[in-house]
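Crash report, auto-generated. Payload:
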Amino acid sequence: MVVRRVFVIWTHPLFHETARLLLKHPDVIWVGAAQDISIMHEEILKLQPDTILFERTVAGFPAGLLEIMKVETWDVHVIGLSLEDNKISLCHREHQTVVDAGDLLQFVLG
Amino acid sequence: MNNRIRVLIADDHTIVRTGLRLLLKAETDIDVVGEALDGQEALNLIEFHHPDVVLMDIAMPGMDGLEATRQIKTRWPDIKVLVLTMHRSDEYFFEMLKAGASGYILKGAETSDLIHAVRVVGSGEVFLYPTMAQLLVKDYLNSIQWGEGPGASLSQREKEILRLISEGLSTKEIAEKLVISPSTVHTHHSNLMTKLGLNNRRELIQYARQRGLIQGK
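Recovered output after restart:
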């Protein structure tokens, strides 16, 4: 199976810890995490993760993430997940779908 | 002797449930004995597992955490309920405490605080997340200030308006400050006088001074 490099953007510590525990898998490499995406912008562009998992809050998409999605020069999948609902947003290039939250690992591994 | 804390998780959010289960399972003194999607399922599982602590969300479809907590404390008074919620509002906080919850923590808390809260509640003590404990202290001080007299029956809004009246603000200024209409302020003003048995603005100000709501000048 292909190894997926994941970067996590979080707001609540519970989300960060949950993501860390759920993504413990031999085919997943946790390349980084940030609570404030603005200071990690360059880092993410440099790391070029396969997947960016972000915590969706009432504020919606983090502004910095939208910028990354606009300028993306690599094939990145963006997954949004919230502690407040059972939906998962899957974004890839210009496509965005919202599905019921299930096994996060499966969404990451594709 | 088995000192492990047996926890049941009641939360309709998949990611939260999963995260909590993994988080708590990693602790050597905590066992997760079940997971419920709503209050009713929590009651069904409690009957079977009889946990020490129920980690309870408030907003859930069907039976919510408030009703579930009331029923748990009626049927199994020894089971402790630790509320885990996104809600910071005092309304939920006080309702859950009245229902019998032993602890209240926010989903925004550090995970180490969450685990600590489970241990504290599991040992029979009370755990209140610091920001929520502040609400309790504020409410206590408020109750001392207002006493058991007629002032105790005033709503929060009425108390707020009385405070602003006593600070010398006009009806228009109060309306602007609270973003309500002047006629609403007027209605609260009338209700205040009726509830407190006072006749005019001067008496309202005097009442507020006696209660220490404003500094006498």
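Post-recovery validation: Chain B touches chain A at residues 12-16, 18-20, 22-23, 26, 86, 107-111, 114 (CB under 8 Å).
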